[in-house]
Amino acid sequence: MQVLFWGTRGSLPVSLNAEQLRQRLLSVLEVAARLPAGQLDTAIGRAEFVDALPFALRGTYGGQSACVEIRGNGPEHLICDLGSGARGLGNAKLARFGPGTPQTYHIFMSHLHWDHLMGLPFFTPLYIPGNQLIIHGCHAELEAAVRLQMSEPGFPVDFSLVDRQVEFHPMEPGQTYDIAGFQVCAMRQMHGGDSYGYRFAQEGKSFVYATDSEHKLDQEEQWAACVDFFREADLIAFDAMYSLAEMVSVKADWGHSSHMIGVELALAARARRLALFHHDPLNDDASLDRLLADSRRFEALSRHRRPPLEVLSAYDGLIVQL
User: Fold this and answer.
1) Coil vs helix vs strand at 36
2) Whole-prediction pTM
3) What is the pLDDT of residues 131-180, one digit of tens each?
4) I want to staple 8 with a disulfide (CB 3.0 to 4.6 A). Which of 218, 293, 314, 320 is the partner?
5) What would the CATH number be for the domain defined by 2-14+60-313?
6) 282 contacts 10 by C-beta, under 8 angstroms
7) Is 244 helix (H, G, I), strand (E, B) or coil?
């Protein structure tokens, strides 16, 4: 199983602006100025220099909103959410399979807020005859919300032009479904209008997609249910939008969690990897680097006698092999 992150931001897409890029280049040049003479004279030397830079200088976490792909051993495609990252995913699928080979896409919607649906009108496979989109979700308003994304006056291409290629499959939380060779189960989460996490299992590997969810420290029943849902997962994509201080104070009841809570839950569940996800658009790359470092220190302090947990921070383009 592979998990590919096409969009990892929360709330709305963001990008580097000109001044941020200028400051980053200046920081790289300052590091380069301290190198021994001649180290950057060759292509290999320059590549090694760039690869040794901190991630916040040599790369970026990206700015597309939530969209994650799960690849298994079958020909059909599984996607969690259709944020703006769905545009890049759709273009990649078209480049690989072309317009002449029909494909089936299973879309699992965590919830119906616009940042998780905004990529649908720009998902190119939607417009290619023969392709099929099967949209799964637990909300009664699922079909209405999807259709609204492609209707006047918000979008010029009406959903009626593609509705023959789209099916809606309702799911019930707590039930396990066999979908495209995966066992899939949903869990209700605490978020405005409700949100649902998904667990995908195939051939002994499991991935949990748990975004847009708040975890109250004093709600033991909810905590225990989440630990059970996360149990021994190979990878958890976890809503880590806020710091712990923000989550329990000024942003309490906003429907999101923190990196520290993610570490606590994943350790309690004896999960193997935790991917911090749904990054706050206010956090730049350096801030996300610091949150990752803090999370890793907290994991080491909190592990006790439990198996180690690998903590990473999801970025647009990240591929995790399970």
Assistant:
1) coil
2) 0.94
3) 999 999 999 999 999 999 999 999 999 999 999 999 999 999 999 999 99
4) 314
5) 3.60.15.10
6) no
7) helix
